[in-house]
TrEMBL record:
Reaction equations catalysed: 7-phospho-2-dehydro-3-deoxy-D-arabino-heptonate = 3-dehydroquinate + phosphate
Gene (name only): aroB
EC number: 4.2.3.4
Descriptive protein name: 3-dehydroquinate synthase
Cofactor binding remark: Binds 1 divalent metal cation per subunit. Can use either Co(2+) or Zn(2+).
The species this protein was found in: Caulobacter radicis
Molecular function (Gene Ontology), one example: 3-dehydroquinate synthase activity
Length: 371
């Protein structure tokens, strides 16, 4: 089974190829994008390396590519200035040239970091995404947002740099820990919540099939997610407007991640689970969305085993002002005012600019944050 979703970006257009058995066929897919000397650097992490990188290297080499593999430590800590310096140095040590290819083979951490390194290495080289987590297959490998975190916030240093190709092999999800699968599910249900009620209803019924890695369920979940993201990115590549909808739950979520210090204690998908629940509850509290939609959305997030409240993240309460200070660093902020993605109902999100911090602060106190 192979499904191809095009991302229509003119001279930077590319395909997202979703299927099974893709790693063994990667060479055939990647070859047309390599320059004459057919050289590529595969960037991966130790977990993905252990399970899958040998097969990828064999497939690329069979197709005639010269392959070097760079293995980085797993975890969000790698998506940092230190991680970027280390990766850049490794690429330079290989004497990778401008015409060579970087292959990001891993989850969102590897995709965001290797993509950013590709954007700035020798002022820009091409890269290909081969995402290995559900989260990366449905979200981070598509759309060209690349970045690193800093202690001041999430993805604050980065670039838009589109991949030349995305290859999503559903088979590699077999080795993904259950916690990571749930993280990916947060970004899957995000698409239903922000713009497709029918998909949301299907997910309500099929959450366990997706989490049990049923192939047919994964095909639909990944396919619909990528289709929605590709359509939005093609219309608004650099987030001048509608692309901000893909940030549902992220202004809340990124602030919580920053307070938690970007480590294993809270993963991005989990922060997005809490953040989307808060976006629904805040919208309901502001009279923008029916209360029963907030209850239903939160129940659907919870059904995947994701957290939906601050108390589930940390027993020590978060400070409301500290969270709001992080929100001020959000890339959607304009003229010092906060922008949020809020909801009118399940399946209809909108961008709310100039959100007043006073009701937001009051809301965070009702969520258990301290004053
Ligand atoms: N660029 C974007 O548009 C975008 C979108 C969403 C998220 N993100 C970013 O993505 C990151 C989160 O990505 P993630 O959730 O994929 O985390 P991740 O990259 O840290 O991967 C999660 C864990 O799973 C392991 N792993 C990956 N694939 C595996 C496999 N097939 N089998 C076994 N283990 C495997 C990794 O080693 C890691 O320990 C965050 O930094 C987030 O900000 C970016
Ligand atoms: O692709 C997008 O646009 C998104 O917002 C997708 C998000 O899931 C993702 O976490 C993204 O990295 C957040 O972007 P940021 O601009 O808020 O850092
Ligand atoms: Zn996200």
């Amino acid at each position: 089974m192979i499904r191809t979703v095009p991302v229509g970006l003119g001279d930077r257009a590319y395909d997202v190829v979703i299927g099974t058995g893709m790693i063994d066929k990667a060479g055939e897919h990647v070859l047309p994008f390599l320059s004459k000397r057919r050289r590529c650097a595969v960037v991966t992490d130790a977990n993905v390396g252990e399970h899958h990188v040998e097969r990828l290297s064999v497939s690329l080499e069979k197709a005639g590519a010269a392959v070097d593999v760079i293995v980085l430590p797993p975890g969000e800590e790698t998506k940092s200035f230190e991680g970027l310096a280390h990766l850049s140095d490794q690429l330079l040590a290989l004497n990778l040239e401008r015409g060579d290819m970087i292959v990001a083979f891993g989850g969102g951490v590897i995709g965001d970091l290797a993509g950013f390194a590709a954007a700035i290495y020798k002022r820009g080289v091409d890269f290909i995404q081969i995402p290995t987590t559900l989260l990366a297959q449905v979200d981070s490998s598509v759309g060209g947002k690349t970045a690193i975190d800093t202690p001041r916030g999430k993805n604050l240093i980065g670039a838009f740099h589109q991949p030349r190709l995305v290859l999503a092999d559903l088979d590699v999800l077999a080795t993904l820990p259950a916690r990571e699968l749930a993280c990916g599910y947060a970004e899957v249900i995000k698409y239903g919540l922000l713009g497709d009620f029918e998909f949301f209803e299907w997910l309500e019924k099929n959450v366990h099939a997706v989490l049990e890695r049923d192939t047919q369920a994964l095909v639909r979940a990944v396919g619909r997610s990528v289709e929605m993201k590709a359509e939005i990115v093609a219309e608004d590549e650099k987030e001048a407007g509608r692309r901000a909808l893909l940030n549902l739950g992220h202004t809340f979520g990124h602030a919580i991640e920053a307070e938690m210090g970007f480590g294993d204690a809270l993963k991005h998908g989990e922060a997005v689970g809490v953040g989307m629940a808060q976006a629904f509850r805040f919208s309901a509290a502001q009279g923008l969305c029916p209360a029963q939609d907030a209850v239903r959305a939160v129940a659907a997030i919870k059904a995947a085993g994701l957290p939906t409240t601050l108390a589930e993240v940390r027993s020590q309460p978060f400070g409301a002002d500290a969270l709001i200070a992080h929100m001020g660093q959000d890339k959607k902020a304009e003229g010092g005012a906060l922008t949020f993605v809020l909801v009118r109902r399940i399946g209809e999100a909108f961008v709310a600019k100039g959100v007043d911090p006073a009701p937001l602060r009051a809301f965070l106190l009702t969520e258990g944050a301290t004053g």
